[in-house]
Amino acid sequence: MLVMGCWLSCPAAESELTVQDAIQIGLKNNYSIRIARTTAEIARNNTGKGTANFLPRLDAGETFRYDAKNENTGSPLSFGNADTRQWTSDIRLNWTLFDGFRMFADKRRYDELARAGYFEAKDKIEATVVGIMRSFFNLVQQQQLFDVVRETRDISRTRLEREQARHEVGGASSADLLNARVNFNKDQSALLDQELAVTIATKDLNILLARDPLTPCIVRKEIPIPSLDIPFEQLLALAQANNSTILTAQHNLNAARESVKIAQSAFWPRLDLNGTYGYNDRALFGDEVGPLADRKSHAITAGAGLVMSFNIFNGSLDSINLQNARLEARTRELALRDSKNKIAGLVQEKYATFQKRMEKLHLEEQNLDTARTNLERQQERYATGAADSLDFRDAQVNYAQAQVRLIVARYDARIALLEVEQLIGRISIE
User: Fold this and answer.
1) What confidence tens digit (pLDDT) does each residue in 191-223 have?
2) Which of 93, 148, 216, 270 could lock onto 275 through a cystine, CB 3.0 to 4.6 A?
């Protein structure tokens, strides 16, 4: 009751949350969306030339060595005490000049994997945005239902007060009064349940927006349904061209085909360029004089060479890798066909669902007009005593049920349209 009370008494200065506001907040804060974007960024980072082995490798090294000797044999050739200190520094270059076109195929494979990662992330983001919109419209629906239940409760309260007044003057039976009190209590109980439903719907939306679950949400109590003036055949074409699931499968297939080329590169020779440049500083410190006295030496070394290698036999491992790569490409091709077929089926299902939901919505609008007219007539007859309380209650229940069915029908139609928009790639994630 406290949460619902806060919702009902929110100041007018509190900003209204629109569905676009909810989407923008979700795109910025939702944890699933942030994870999906990070995963896609990792895939993009792998598209550099360094990951495909285009660029050379350059290493630097430095070594220091110290040796101490104490040699005293009594021979004229004895060195006595001698210390040797040696510093060595070098730079090593290794650059693959040719690897059977593997580096080119590897670069294209990483590019395709990055595109697949983008559309996979896009698919997850679209699903999350759809979840946010579904949750937003559900909150609107629950608040609309709350208004219906509250109106029904208020009508029952008026009826109960009237029956009490009539009973006091002897104009109503005890049964009519008891029925009125039972119906009022029933409607009051339903109102409590609906308050809870609004609270839960608010919590669900806030969770998707990565906000405090107790954050109040003020939304306009309407669910607009945009028109869908697109022929079914065009919907199918849009889905095949824009659906994120299909595009992810397509780029995964492209990457698998590049993997076949990578496996084929093992049957080509390999050519590497190697180069070194080094500096050596050696110092000898001894006790003797003359030729065996302290000596120092310096040397600079440099070299370069080409190395060609060609594998003759490795247990048919290269052939096995090539066969597996071709099988993987075949699997990806089947997965793409499966995705296209499933998406086509879903487009047909969701489009038909949307059409039926709209037909039901128009029917419920007519039913509501009829139920409202009937309730107004029964109210007049009940006020004049021409109708008893049970007839009035039936009209009241029918009107409330017609309102509920209309609210649910409008929500279902909007969600059906939302699912069609998701399938054809019309969900904005920017």
Assistant:
1) 999 999 999 999 999 999 999 999 999 999 999
2) 93
